[in-house]
């Protein structure tokens, strides 16, 4: 997203009571921020990974309901999860889940009033990214060892 | 001055104003429940992620036996309840932030709540059928 040079560029299109169009000033919003900064990028990623995990919950529901339904239904889940699409999806889901979890820890510490200064925010942000990579690899290492 | 006096005066006590919760008719309950469920889900999801990873490649019988073990079934039921509460609460906030039309916002929140309730009940029934 491009960075706005002048916050007055942020206007909304409205209409006067006589119906004539008017561009009214709007307080600066997303347009004024560089969304590729670590702070904004990790912030929106927290939401996106939350939504991804909602879809992951659907797989959990499918897995449990199929296990209760019987071997043939469960074979369908196993077929999907061991397919290329299923594996790719599960790797993505694992990474999203770990990110959401570690970023959630960061949010809980913010809620408790800690870590608001910029240096700490960047440091914990990098810790979340590194932690996500480490935990995703660790989870799949366990899965591969269990599978073999 | 009269105006100054009026600004600092209200017919309601500070406690009454807090208890009244203002025009939103809600305070921090939704936000707080998001934090509570997130804290409860931390150990549960750690347990589930590692268990699910170690179940990779397990047969149908092994998987069903794992779900049916009492301790696992209890933790699974807790995970299901908390995860769907947390999901519904999270998606509700996203809808409240991004849905412009009131009917989209209200309809979306109600639909998400319905879906989360039904999926949570279906998952819980599946666990109970295996465990009981």
From TrEMBL, chain A:
A GO CC term assigned to this protein in UniProt: membrane
Gene3D superfamilies: Fumarate reductase/succinate dehydrogenase, transmembrane subunit
Subcellular localization, as worded in the UniProt entry: Membrane
Residues involved in heme binding: 100
Chief site of localization: membrane
Free-text remark on how the cofactor is bound: The heme is bound between the two transmembrane subunits.
Name by which UniProt lists this protein: Succinate dehydrogenase cytochrome b556 subunit
Species annotation: Siccirubricoccus deserti
From TrEMBL, chain B:
Database matches in InterPro entries: SQR/QFR_C/D, Succ_DH_anchor, SuccDH_FuR_B_TM-su
Pathway: Carbohydrate metabolism; tricarboxylic acid cycle
Subcellular location: Membrane
Membrane topology: Multi-pass membrane protein
Residues spanning the membrane: 40-61, 73-95, 107-128
Any one GO molecular-function label of the UniProt entry: metal ion binding
Principal location class: membrane
Keywords annotated in UniProt: Electron transport, Heme, Iron, Membrane, Metal-binding, Transmembrane, Transmembrane helix, Transport, Tricarboxylic acid cycle
Cofactor(s) of this protein: heme
Top-level taxon of the source organism: Bacteria
GO cellular component, one term: membrane
Any single GO BP term: tricarboxylic acid cycle
Function: Membrane-anchoring subunit of succinate dehydrogenase (SDH).
NCBIfam families attached to this UniProt entry: succ_dehyd_anc (TIGR02968)
Quaternary data: Part of an enzyme complex containing four subunits: a flavoprotein, an iron-sulfur protein, plus two membrane-anchoring proteins, SdhC and SdhD.
The protein, known as: Succinate dehydrogenase hydrophobic membrane anchor subunit
Species in which this protein is naturally found: Siccirubricoccus deserti
């Amino acid at each position: 997203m491009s960075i706005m040079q002048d916050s007055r560029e942020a206007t909304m299109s409205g209409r006067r009571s006589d119906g004539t169009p008017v561009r009214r000033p709007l307080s600066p919003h997303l347009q004024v921020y560089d969304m590729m900064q670590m702070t904004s990028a990790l912030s929106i990623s927290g939401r996106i990974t939350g939504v991804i995990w909602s879809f992951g919950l659907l797989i959990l529901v499918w897995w449990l309901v199929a296990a209760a339904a019987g071997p043939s239904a469960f074979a369908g889940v196993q077929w999907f999860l061991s397919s290329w699409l299923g594996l790719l999806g599960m790797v993505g889901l694992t990474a999203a889940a770990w990110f959401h979890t570690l970023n959630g820890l960061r949010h809980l510490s913010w809620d408790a009033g800690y870590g608001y200064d910029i240096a700490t925010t960047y440091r914990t942000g990098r810790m979340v990214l590194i932690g996500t990579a480490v935990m995703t690899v660790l989870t799949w290492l366990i899965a591969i060892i269990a599978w073999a | 001055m009269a105006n100054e006096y009026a600004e600092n005066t209200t017919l309601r006590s500070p406690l009454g104003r807090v208890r009244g919760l203002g025009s939103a008719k809600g305070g921090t309950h939704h936000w707080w429940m998001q934090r509570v469920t997130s804290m409860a889900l931390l150990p549960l999801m750690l347990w589930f992620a590692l268990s699910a990873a170690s179940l990779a490649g397990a047969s149908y019988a092994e998987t069903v036996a794992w779900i049916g073990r009492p301790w696992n079934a209890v933790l699974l039921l807790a995970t299901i309840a908390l995860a769907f509460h947390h999901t519904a609460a999270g998606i509700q906030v996203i809808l409240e932030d991004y849905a412009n039309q009131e009917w989209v916002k209200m309809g979306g929140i109600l639909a998400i709540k319905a879906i989360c309730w039904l999926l949570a009940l279906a998952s819980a029934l599946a666990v109970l059928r295996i465990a009981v």
